[in-house]
Design brief:
The protein is an alpha+beta fold. It folds into 3 domains: 6-115, Rossmann fold (3-Layer(aba) Sandwich); 123-139 and 209-349, D-amino Acid Aminotransferase, Chain A, domain 1 (2-Layer Sandwich), CATH 3.30.470.20; 144-206, Dna Ligase, domain 1, CATH 3.30.1490. The protein contains 11 helices and 13 strands.
């Protein structure tokens, strides 16, 4: 292992001024009791802190915001010559489907980087392709149809309730409380909402009632599952569905954010835990992920598993799901980051 690896923590925040608070900003008054404390750090500050903590573990680390300009990345590579790029780019010019192109450029340049390859990002970005690949290997996903254009009737043999999602988004974008539909009228309205607002096909799935499990996977050649995390919906009010919506993930002023409570490790019988981990590792390999990913699944009352999402390069902030599982496995935040960098560096000869 090379001593004092130079690591570039690369991310893309095109409008950093968006995160600057004015003196007039006030804390919003909530009409419910929050469960979580609101994070004070902005995403940019999170990346800066991550680079600082990497430096504290012996890496020569720095952070780089490419600000929707690929020339910034190319010039930095030429000037600073990083040994490894810690890749946090999730979209380019407001398009998540360009995420894979930036990684493809790193492939062409031959620079080791953390996380998923272009093909894995492309596969997982397409929810329909993901479902078909998983189903082809015997992994259950909810029954579904794909709607590409408006019609009078969309239900083709699926059972209510259903959930309607944009087919090419991630991070729960487009998944809201109204995404759960229980009638043909609601189905028509939500499908047309997705078609009109996201300009992409709508994925309509049977909604699986049951326990929601997040299985974090770590590794490259020999990936393994970390302790399973479960989302507890018991505090969710009646007017909200038991889903991890966009608001539940990202809006600390929304009640769903404070009523989707993660527990790790999940309280599961050993046989069920083993099966969940085996399915998650299989899904990780099927979708050609590497280094780290999170597999979201549901366990119904008949102990049947349904994979909902395969998430390459999930959130690595210290309070996020992947790091929660890593901590339960006995890895510190810094140790986990170091493992990911070492996996990338080990690939340089391959």
């Amino acid at each position: 292992m090379k001593v004092n690896l130079k690591v570039a923590v690369v991310f893309n925040e095109a409008n950093p001024d968006f995160y600057v608070k004015s003196a007039d900003d006030e804390t919003k008054q909530l009409n419910f009791t929050p469960y979580f404390e609101v994070e004070e750090l902005t995403p940019i500050e999170e990346y800066e802190l991550l680079a600082k903590r990497l430096s504290g573990t012996g890496f020569n680390a720095y952070h780089l915001n490419i600000k929707d300009d690929i020339e910034i990345l190319l010039n930095d590579i030429k000037k600073n010559k990083p040994d490894v790029i810690f890749n946090f780019i999730e979209l380019y010019r407001e398009n998540p489907r360009l995420e894979m192109n930036v990684v493809g450029l790193l492939e062409l340049l031959g620079i080791p980087y953390t996380g998923a390859t272009p093909i894995a990002l492309a596969n997982c970005q397409n929810k329909v392709l993901t479902k078909r690949m998983l189903n082809a290997t015997g992994i259950n996903t909810p029954k579904f149809i794909v709607v590409k254009k408006p019609a009078k009737r969309y239900n083709k043999g699926l059972k209510y309730p259903m959930i309607v999602k944009p087919a090419f988004e991630d991070a729960s974008v487009g998944i809201e409380n109204d995404s759960i539909v229980e009638s043909s009228r609601q189905l028509n309205e939500r499908v047309e909402y997705v078609l009109n607002n996201f300009m992409q096909p709508a994925l309509v799935e049977e909604f699986i009632e049951g326990r929601e499990l997040n299985v974090a996977i770590l590794g490259d050649k020999n990936p393994f599952a970390l302790p399973i995390s479960e989302i507890d919906f018991t505090s969710m009010p009646d007017y909200l569905h038991n889903i991890v919506s966009y608001q539940a993930k990202w809006d600390p002023n929304h009640e769903a954010y404070h009523k989707t409570i993660p527990y790790c490790p999940a309280d599961l019988p050993s046989s069920i835990e083993k099966k969940a981990k085996d399915i998650a590792v299989s899904a990780f390999k099927t979708m050609m992920c590497r280094d780290y990913a999170r597999i979201d699944m549901r366990l119904n009352k008949n102990n049947e598993f349904y994979v909902l999402e395969v998430n390459p390069n999930p959130d690595l902030t210290e309070s996020a799901g992947f790091m929660r599982s890593a901590e339960a496995a006995g890895f510190s935040y810094e140790q986990t980051l170091k493992k990911l960098i070492n996996l990338a560096w080990a690939r340089r000869k391959r």
